[in-house]
Amino acid sequence: MARHQMPRRHFLGTVGAAGLGSAAIGLVPGAGEAAAASSAAEGLTDAGHRSELPYPTLRRPFAMPGVKEQDWTGALFVGTGESRFALRVGLLTAQGKLLREKMTNYLWRIGPMTPDGAYKEVRVTTDDRTIMPAHLDALREVIAHPDQWSQSAVDDATAKLPQLQQKYDQVQSEKRTIRVSYARTGDGSELVGAVTALDDDTTVVLELSSPWGEVASYAVDGTCLTGSAPGLLDTTRTGHIRLSPTEPADSSGCYASVADMTAAVTGGSGTPGTAVAALVYRLGKGRTITFAARVDDRTVKADAPEAHEVEHTLAAGAHVRGGNLTGSGPVGRAADAVRDALSLNTNYDRDRRRNYVMWGWGGGGGLFTGWDSAFDAVNAAFVSRTLALQHETDVFEAPAPPNQVPLLGPRYDQQNSGPMHAYAAWRLYTKFGDRSILEKTYPALVTFHDLLPEWDTDRDGLLETPYFGDRVGGRGNHLGLDDSPVYADYHRVPKQGGSGDKRDNTDLTDVALNSYYALLAETLAKMARVLGKPQAAERFAAQHATIRRLLNDRLWHAEKGLYLSRYLDGTWNEVVTPTVFYPLFAGLATQERARVLVEQHLLNPEEFWGEYVVPSVARNDPTYCSGGPVHPDSEHFRFFDRYGEDTAPEQWKGAVWPPMNATVYDGVKRYGFDDVAGQFAARSTAMYLDAWDKENWFPESFDPEPGQSVMDSAVDTAWRTYSWSNAMPVQGLHELISDNPWDGDASAIMFGTLSLPGTNTVANVQLRGHTYAVSAGPDRTTLVRDGRTVFRATGARVAVRNFVLRGSGASFDINADGPARVEVFGKDGRARGRKVPAGRTHVSL
């Protein structure tokens, strides 16, 4: 086996030193992606455009850590003919259970890692954290303050605390933790790796098997494991793999099935065979096993690297910040968390043979074409152009879900899916300038749009919510708002005609649904203009204008100063949730009504504002946190009820949802409330980082009160690595630098902030073929493009919009919180500057 050393990367802390990394990867390079070290591959033109495919393609053979559902400690290898192999690192518990896949419950630490698979590091532990210190503290709180809880709650806590404490202590005493690291080397078909035991008496298993049960044959070859398998696309191409450890295992074997292998390594007996091969190591604390693994079209030679070579390569690979998204500061540091989280959730679509972002449920059962994936595309675009484009393309090439309208792409049973995927595709265009993603998505989105009038019960131009029945967990499912109290009292109306969707209509004219409807029309109009379809653009623009007029006429509650849903008999649905702000997201509100929404409602701590924002129902609504008793005087747990039960902020009665926050942020930013947008983004990012710092989780939803860490939905093992959670910190990153998805020049960018705390930086951001870095602080904001400073403002905080760099100058709109001096630097290094007053100014330099 050839020995390769990965060049050491170096990240300079100053913003102006940001640059591209140089690690070899198994992807055709896009803007800002590192180039493969060797081997010709499908590429992109200099403009980053291909007419056939809107994304760089995976080149075979390749090796990539992870990329199979929840194989967090494993790696996937794919040969030229699409032969597939899986390397897994298993961990044995004190009770003799082998943890080898579906390991979300046992993740302990995530990262650093890269989205292209060049480097990956995770820690896994035998402690699944079903019982956490917060659970024990909550029970102690009940016992210590019996006057604040019912007698039954006190009795329950008194009985359960010693039992849970005993279980917790036992788990901690028996805990075994390992650190697993991978780095890709050479031409992208080889990985080196290491497993380090962080506790004594640790048993690990290195395993080769097939990732999805394909036909393959495995064997033990001396101290190594080997395998071969025919290609799934080209059966004449046989792939070969070799796993070469740097030292012999304590035991090894080949088995007839995974079950036989598991039985053998856990103390039983397993039938010999060729379906799986394994090496078993018994390690003391601090001991490391190193190895290399390679896939090839020819039998791989038996050479093994030296341990010090592997360790040197891994140490170099661990410096992932130099060529990947990174940042610093109270908000900017979230860039590293987002990079690691989305890298962890990068998965391989075995049917369409490309990568995508795996959604929640600790796996998700494959690509999800609902609205979740739209947020994943927007978030992934901050991390990797390649991943974002492959992901969104995958959504539109996925087959229709069973029993759904036969429509490629977004799920039609969730009416927010089409609008959000239109928005995601548009943002990929504004970020990267490649119109092929619009060509790919536009036809299906037009079909989606033209089906939506079947939900217009009274044919007045506004949509009513579909009927999902009276079951719990679905009355608001058309918007992913499953149990939102907004939908508690709608009435069924039989539907006439339609697309074949069997759901009936209802009598509730829905603010959120009509906001999405308008967003879809507006986005399709923009797409049509880019694609050279002027008549279609006029049609969709007129549709947006009509919805805007109707919604303002019929769904604005003048007395309350809110957009509220309304029944067809004219009565109001007065449940107040964050959907009252969705007309901002869709560009429907007048500027005055937007001001009322923001100043009188969003910033009102009795409704939505607070250290954590925004709850899924207003704080002064009767349904807010109504799932259990509220204890305002409790020292630590305001809403804790009892162990093992849902706490008071049930999912739709107060929990904070990342997609809601992202939608509200985008609406506030769109309407120019720069100071509020920055505060909002800072709060969203802080919520995310609280969970990330404490538990290294990125959960599906969050408790609306700081310090609440016992909420079942946030800590349950199925929700610890929920991809759309990254929409929370991406608000903070978008506050620092963003594409321009709204009005104006689609090639323009936005950057700077009026209100993020402290000084924040973000580096290695890819926009329109350039690499950007930003530093934004109280009295200085700097923009660096491709390693060269192009803008600087001093003397005040600034938020810059519509920034377009042309030749030796630039034009932009600036909002400053005080007098400032701005400078633009041409290619010749000369500065052109002027002073600007506090407030808004248009500048051309």
Sequence-ordered SSE layout with sheet pairings:
Layout: E1 62-65, E2 75-78, E3 84-92, E4 98-99, E5 107-110, E6 119-125, H1 133-144, H2 151-173, E7 177-185, E8 190-197, E9 202-209, E10 217-221, E11 224-230, E12 238-245, E13 251-255, H3 258-265, E14 276-283, E15 288-296, H4 307-317, E16 326-328, H5 334-344, E17 346-349, E18 354-357, H6 371-383, H7 385-397, H8 417-432, H9 436-451, E19 492-493, E20 505-506, E21 508-509, H10 511-530, H11 534-554, E22 556-557, E23 562-563, E24 566-567, H12 582-585, H13 591-602, H14 658-670, H15 674-695, H16 712-715, H17 727-736, E25 737-739, E26 749-752, E27 760-767, E28 770-776, E29 780-785, E30 788-794, E31 798-806, E32 809-816, E33 820-825, E34 831-836, E35 839-844
What does this 3D model show about the protein?
The chain is α+β, with helices and mostly antiparallel strands and 845 residues long. Helix content is 27%, strand content 22%. It is built from 17 helices and 35 strands. The strands form eight sheets. An eight-stranded antiparallel beta sheet has the order 5-6-7-8-15-12-11-10, sandwiched between helices. Strand 7 and strand 8 (190-197) form a beta hairpin. The N and C termini lie far apart (57 Å).
